[in-house]
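Severity: low
Component: inverse-folding endpoint
Summary: output formatting inconsistent between runs
Steps to reproduce: submit the following structure tokens with default settings.
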């Protein structure tokens, strides 16, 4: 199995990200082979090695070399560290030989011995054969060890059991659909070029990349597949589109960065948010102005919750925003906001022609359909509002209380944009990757080039299992009696696993689904040809 290693600073120094998960805890089976791929340029100067001691040589330990091979130079193509796990190997830790605190833990999965009516069925002295799992169906005739990463909710089923059989399932918690649709990635610039790998197929599906420097002043950088590579817009200005060396390529698993200081200045730290086009989540459309009002077709597949429009070849033209909750949700199509300013909502028929959007169209008035100079060029970023149980995004509103103020979504968010709508205020952007917890405000402003706010304060925004809480009497997002709009994107929770009712769990209760990125191991036996099974969760990385 191969793991893509990247290095980024989440705010406390450089850290390893394993398949985009910060210091991910891993589980390796005895006898299996695993490769840490350090080809990404962010690995430069950060050789990854293994140790039986936490933090490796920085923790007083030594490098573990049994079954380990290395190749190439970190940060260059083909660089990797690979291990074939020896039987009896200890718990391991991956670490950087040059810098402390970057790595994480590797649990070693040991196959237990089972004696059913005398013979050893599975154990250290028995050959381990990896079988197949297809959409939850475990074919017991194909092996005695099964490795699975559920990509969606499903029920396991055991097929073709032997009369007497023991086997194990290694299940790694996957991500909900949002993980293949939206991503927050933090990185450090190198002033030349680098590739950001986030697993999102932009070259095929299309989407938006939004980047902001964190540690100093710099404009936001918005690049999308509709306008094409190297074409920049900034949410904090009314400037026309610029041609820059920001993003020279949209890839099948992310995007490339050029040398532009807005996105890749040496040693600067950045946050990037990637939105992939997907039904009931996000869409992008462009059009050429004709004057007057007109209907614009879209492929969102649902009624938009929020629309952001830019006349991108018109000098001094503001960004215009529709939100379903403007004017308290009453005729919001009569109102608009400006993304690049702090201004309150305004009643203007020239924005949306006083026409409510539908699941296939939205309408723009003359202000957003100018024909100056033969036709202005426009782009719209369209966000859904989906309240279904498996929905990924919601656009809503709340009223400030001046005290701790819970907002219910039905799920925990990983990304949040908030704007006071009835008065002047900034567009605040928060995400869980940078930190979104009560007591600590970590915020960037879409309308400002300012550095990231990162301060300990009761006036913060923190996530809950069912939404978020806006705290404090002095919070700019919680003034008593004021109205606020928001757009929230769901956290990437692990799919649910349902086990067969024929299993009798020795713990007495059915185990929980492994958390995202966590690997749990379950051991099963049957002595009646699959009529009943005895099961135990033999390894629980969550605990």
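Observed output (run 2 of 3):
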């Amino acid at each position: 199995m191969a793991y893509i290693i990247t290095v980024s600073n989440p705010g406390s120094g450089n850290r390893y990200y394993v398949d985009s998960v910060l210091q991910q805890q891993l589980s390796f089976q005895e006898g299996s082979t695993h490769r840490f791929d350090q080809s990404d340029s962010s690995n430069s100067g950060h050789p990854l090695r293994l140790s039986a001691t936490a933090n490796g040589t920085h923790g007083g330990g030594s490098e573990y070399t049994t079954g380990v091979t290395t190749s190439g130079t970190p940060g260059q193509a083909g660089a990797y560290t690979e291990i074939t796990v020896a039987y009896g190997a200890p718990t391991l830790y991956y670490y950087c030989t040059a810098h402390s605190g970057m790595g994480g833990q590797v649990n070693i999965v040991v196959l237990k011995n089972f004696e059913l009516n005398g013979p050893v069925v599975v154990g250290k002295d028995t050959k381990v054969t990896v079988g197949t799992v297809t959409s939850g169906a475990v074919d017991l005739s194909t092996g005695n060890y099964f490795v699975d990463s559920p990509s969606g909710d499903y029920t396991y089923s055991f097929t073709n059991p032997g009369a007497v059989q023991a086997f194990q399932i290694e299940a790694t918690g996957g991500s909900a659909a949002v993980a293949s649709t939206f991503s927050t990635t933090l990185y450090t610039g190198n002033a030349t070029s680098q590739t950001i790998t986030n697993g999102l197929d932009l070259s095929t599906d299309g989407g938006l990349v939004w980047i902001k420097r964190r540690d100093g002043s710099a404009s936001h950088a918005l690049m999308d597949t509709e306008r094409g590579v190297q074409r920049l817009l900034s949410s904090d200005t009314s400037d026309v589109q610029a041609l820059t060396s920001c993003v020279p390529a949209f890839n099948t698993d992310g995007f490339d960065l050029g040398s532009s200081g807005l996105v890749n200045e040496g040693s600067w730290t950045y946050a990037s948010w990637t939105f992939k086009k997907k039904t009931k989540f996000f869409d992008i459309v462009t059009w050429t102005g004709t004057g007057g009002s007109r209907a614009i077709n879209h492929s969102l597949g649902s009624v938009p919750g929020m629309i952001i429009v830019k006349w991108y070849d018109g000098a001094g033209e503001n960004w215009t925003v529709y939100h379903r909750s403007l004017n308290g949700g009453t005729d919001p199509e009569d109102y608009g906001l400006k993304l690049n300013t702090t201004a309150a909502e305004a009643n203007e028929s020239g924005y949306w022609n006083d026409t409510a959007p539908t699941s296939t169209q939205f309408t723009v008035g003359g202000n957003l359909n100018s024909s100056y100079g033969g036709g202005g060029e426009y782009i719209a970023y369209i966000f859904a509002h989906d309240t279904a149980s498996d929905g990924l995004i919601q656009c809503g509103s709340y009223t400030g209380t001046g005290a701790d103020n819970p907002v219910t979504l039905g799920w925990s968010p990983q990304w949040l944009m908030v704007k006071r709508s009835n008065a002047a205020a900034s567009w605040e952007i928060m995400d869980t990757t940078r930190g979104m917890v009560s007591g600590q405000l970590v915020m960037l402003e879409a309308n400002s080039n300012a550095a990231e706010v990162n301060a300990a304060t009761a006036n913060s925004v923190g996530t809950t299992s069912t939404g978020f809480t806006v705290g404090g009497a002095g919070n700019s997002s919680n003034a008593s009696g004021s109205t606020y709009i928001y757009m929230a994107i769901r956290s990437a929770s692990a799919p649910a696993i349902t086990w067969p009712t024929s299993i009798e769990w020795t713990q007495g209760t059915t185990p929980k689904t492994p958390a995202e990125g966590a690997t749990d191991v379950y051991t099963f036996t049957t002595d009646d040809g699959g009529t009943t099974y005895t099961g135990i969760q033999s390894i629980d990385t969550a605990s």
